[in-house]
Amino acid sequence: MRSCPRARPRRRFQESEAAYDREIEIEATDFALEGLTGFTAKAGEKIEFKLENKGKAEHELEIFGPDGSEVGEVSPVKPGSTGEAIVTLSAPGTYTYKCGIADHADHGMKGTFTVT
């Protein structure tokens, strides 16, 4: 009797490292940024910030680390469009964000979130 060769198990290829850990959806209107209330993250997390512009003016999202230096930005987004950026939140502390276009931050398009 001939024996059949054993079937070899198929190898599963490991998926490449994820581009980000999670996605946060933010809506920009004239003049508010919604979606970051209560947002927290862990140091080292990679977050995709997705900014949907539902306003009539162009908006962006600038993110600053605890030391005040810019750590990432969703570039200006035209009305009706969406932009995104992947940002690594490296250090624990209080981060700030704002729309850096004209005086939008002065009109309320700013806030903070905590990284632990």
Task: Tell me about this structure.
This protein has 116 residues and is mostly beta strands. Helices cover 0% and strands 48% of the residues. It is built from no helices and nine strands. The chain has strands at 22-29, 32-34, 40-41, 45-53, 59-64, 70-77, 82-89, 93-98, 110-115. The strands form two sheets. The protein has a five-stranded mixed beta sheet with strand order 3-9-8-5-6, with no helix packed on it. Strands 2-1-4-7 form a four-stranded mixed beta sheet, with no helix packed on it. A hairpin with a 5-residue loop joins strand 5 (59-64) and strand 6. Residues 1-16 have low confidence and may be disordered.
**C-alpha termini separation:** 66 Å
Question: Count of helices?
Answer: 0
Average pLDDT level: 89
What's the assembly state of these chains?
single chain
Task: Report the strand count.
Answer: 9
- Structural class comes to mainly beta
Element order: H for helix, E for strand: EEEEEEEEE
Shape: globular
How would a textbook summarize the main sheet?
5 strands, mixed
Strand order of the largest sheet: 3-9-8-5-6
Helix content: under 10%
Spans of at least 5 consecutive residues with low confidence: 1-16
Fraction in beta strands: over 45%
**Rounded to an integer, what's the Rg over CA atoms?**
21 Å
